């Protein structure tokens, strides 16, 4: 297998239920699906052996969005759905056949900033459980 590197985009980020998904990719200047793993210390036991510490991975989706003050903006969507768990579908590149689906907790975004400047809002939404790699139809990929 030959290693390759791909550019992020053009792609897609959709938030919400399938029937009412909101596409927000046009406002995003940066986006990532990020794991954070935590490893507890190993525990020595009387026999001289060691019990491995627990390990876990938490996920989040993070990004930077150009601010938009319209009713249909990502800021308004996040305000309207604040602290709600909503489905997401992230497609890093329309030229490839892997997307990521999951559920995230939406939080409100910053509105405003420097006067007479185009402001952005950084955000981080926690992912509930594990994200799932899916194909273009939303079917989970079988990983070998």
TrEMBL record:
Domain of life where this protein originates: Bacteria
Protein name: Major tail protein
Taxonomic source organism: Curtobacterium pusillum
